[in-house]
Amino acid sequence: xxxxxxxxxxxxxxxxxxxxxxxxxxxxxxxxxxxxxxxxxxxxxxxxxxxxxxxxxxxxxxxxxxxxxxxxxxxxxxxxxxxxxxxxxxxxxxxxxxxxxxxxxxxxxxxxxxxxxxxxx
Length: 121
Known about the structure:
Blueprint: H1 7-15, H2 27-36, H3 41-59, E1 62-64, E2 69-71, H4 72-98
Antiparallel strand pairs: 1-2
Helix pairs in contact: 1-2, 1-3, 2-3, 3-4
């Protein structure tokens, strides 16, 4: 059973790398994406998709034969759009976290003693 609370498994789930018998990336590579993305699962998934897109564009050219066609650049473009959407979502979540107050105010009045007066318990 896969633990989807694990960041490596979460990245795999987002990018569709769920075939345990033949994964696109090994765990160390996914951990590398997480390190580069400073542990942001969404950004790591976006980087992984960009890597897949680059590979697709390099290996699968646009080819048409008698009854089959392959459009590697179109697939790469779709993967890059997915990666861009993940980065936008990550930015929205980060911006929402940044909306928390920058500082917290607290009472400076004290217990009502005069300036310089000792406080006794």
